[in-house]
Fold:
Amino acid sequence: VPKILIIDDERDVRDSVAKVLERSGYEVRVADGGTEGIEAYQKHGADVVITDIIMPETNGVDVIAALRKESPSVRIIAISGGGNFAPIGYVPMAITTNAYLAAAKKVGADAILTKPFERKDLLAAIDGLVRS
Amino acid sequence: MARIADSLAGRLGLVALAILVLLLPVLYVGLDRIVARSQQQMFVTDIRTYARLLADEFELGSATDSEERTRALLENVLLSREGVFAELEFDGRTVRAELDRTTGAESFPGEDFAYGAGGDQAYYLSTPIVHDKRSGVLRIGFDERPVEATIRETRRRVLFSLGAFFVVSLLMAVYFGRRLAQPLVELQRASRQVASGELAATLETGSDISELRELGRDLEFMRTELVSVSGRLREQMREREIADRERRELEDRLAERRRLATVGTLAGGIAHEFNNILVPIQLYTELAIDDLGAGHPVRADLERVQDAARRAKRIVNDIFAFTRGKDHEEFGSVNAADVAAEVLRLYEHMVPGGIHVVQVIEPGCPPVVGDAGMINQVIHNLCANAVQAMVDVTGELKVSVMPASDTHSSQAGLAPGTCLDICVSDSGHGMDSEVRKRIFEPFFTTRTVGRGTGLGLFVVHGMVESMGGAVVVESAPGAGTSFHVLLQIASSTAVADFSGTQAEG
Structure:
């Protein structure tokens, strides 16, 4: 049974995703935030890691970079609430989720999933990665 | 009276009057004296000459030989002149002319040595005569009253002449005063015209008085200088007004951008959080539906929750469409005319029957900097908005693509000649200025509930701005609305090279 690690600072998100995946037969572990997620992977390992990108303290890009260092073969799905927090060109310090997602892809994310997603989208993404 | 005394003509008249009033009595008295004296002098000289001639007549002739002839000559004195007395004492005899006279003395009262002497209104003189070595005295007297009458008449004439002189002098003073004042009156009228804004009124006078002519020339010079300064000032004020207006428009645009940026930031943050919330809503709902058997009454409710979550997702996506943005380098070169034509092909089949779709695309439009998907979305949203503005009415939806006018470029704060204008206009009910100010705000809508989310124009604004363009809105109540989407022409070829592009295209 493929082992899946879910890293998200939003409890409702990680719990709902976990429940969907458990019901689909996966072995699921959850972690609250990036630091805890890296520790969980180091401790328990996983075939697929689903990690949020915008998180306090350790963000998703750093998590993916750390996981890639641990294992080049682990499959990683980056998920994000999407969008920008401010229109480009107006506020120089605006948080650009697109930029984070691009960075996530660069450091080793295998797939990007934009919240909110439906069950079929989630399962299709995991299924594709597990099979590959 | 005070008004007359204030005027130049009135003052000259008064001065002339004063001079005449002082001068004329002196003149009159002087003339009267001269006239009286000359008349009296003439009378005395005349009488004395006459007496001498008569004496010569007695001395040289033979009148003294006969008393009758003597008397006849003496009576001639009384008859031919204004004589009142004639007597000849000769050779011991005295002959006196005797005529019925009411004046004159009974006997010779003695010689007068001056006119008016004796107080008897007659002038008496005696002249010695010698004839044939015999001597005698001729005594004659003449009435002074005709002379007095002549003096009185002359005095009357002098008085009349002086009166006429007085009147004529006064009239001439007034006339010349008015003539003198005329150029000043003209100057006054012209200066009032200048003061009231008729700057073309000339201040030069055609006076033949050099001082007034010079004054008019100087004032005219002053007027032209003032007109010139006034013109310059007006021009400066106009330029300043334009600069102020442009500054205000720029400030308004900046304020609008900041406001929308703030709203966008807020909306983006809320949307991000919203997406996080939607994940468990969607997933748990799906799990719950699975748990319920087919036909369970709660299942339909949960499916409605699922639909609502999907609708919420669409709204969030719209907000992201505004905030998603791209780096400028990420944009490519897009043929906006093709995109517009593509959207219109779709709309021609979608619009209600009463709406006529018009497409005006200039051939050979240069490509713009942007994203084809975004431009498609922008035109689509604007067309949807236009159709909504013409709900329940017939009208025209017009989409045109052409080089942007300098006016619109300037209004958008973009360099003239560097933009393409994608204009979507409708003949709908238009907007007032208050609505126009708020149309780009998220969730702002004038439509009835359920007809729109109020995000369409919000998205348009965000996308156009992120592509480095700008939107100019022209609208008035009842006059329809035009949205000019100005996007920068790709590469350095601007509108100046547009004809070349056309030729190639």
